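Q: For a teaching handout, I want to show students what a protein-ligand complex looks like in token form. Below are the inputs, and the small molecule is manganese (II) ion. Please produce the holo structure.
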Amino acid sequence: MKYLFPPPPVPSVPVLGRDEQFPLRRIFCVGRNYEAHARELGNEVNRETPFYFTKAATHYVPSGATVPYPPGTANYHHELELVVAIGKAGFQIPEAQALAHVFGYACGLDMTRRDLQATLREKKLPWDLAKDFENAAVVSALAPAAAIGHPARGKIELKVNGDIRQSSDLGLMIHPVPGLIAHLSRFYHLQPGDLIFTGTPEGVGPVIVGDRIEGMIEGVGEIELNINAEE
Ligand code: MN
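A: Here is the structure, written as tokens, with manganese (II) ion included.
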């Protein structure tokens, strides 16, 4: 096989306690999965059906990175989320078997250009410009489920420059992980390497140049991101 130019490297996430990386395939993100967050952005709470958007795997950045303030926004927001890493392929997965498809878990930051999202939402247009941009998918090292189990509750907390901005509990998800995997796998053949960002609790807000974001999820791990000057 000859390529016109060198193919880009496969983005991959470190795995705690292993010297092997988890290669990324797709990044699915769940919207409005905590009631208090849906309400803080002025949305109706829908308990019936989850909805999704996606981010390109090439927009992944590891925890600890320093990223430039993104272009095209004046309201760049943090969203701390539990991330599920799929390790076993499946289609139309029954909820009772869903967790057998999970390799592990991580902390994630679904970085968002909130002003663009608000405009797009008003016009009933897709959210890509608001959600799927460079460096917008921050993921910590993966904690294998074999080591930590399957966290269904536990503290999820984010600080900016040491001040707590988001503090909630995984147990408050409207659609918990098994139901998300069952639902999403009705529409996609899930594959090893797929990630699912499971939605953020309330307390989302802006960050500016020079800010340092630190997040933690009890029993899962920690994540960090630093915001640098615009490029
Ligand atoms: Mn989110």
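A: Two things your students might notice: The chain has a mean pLDDT of 96. The chain has one domain: 12-228.
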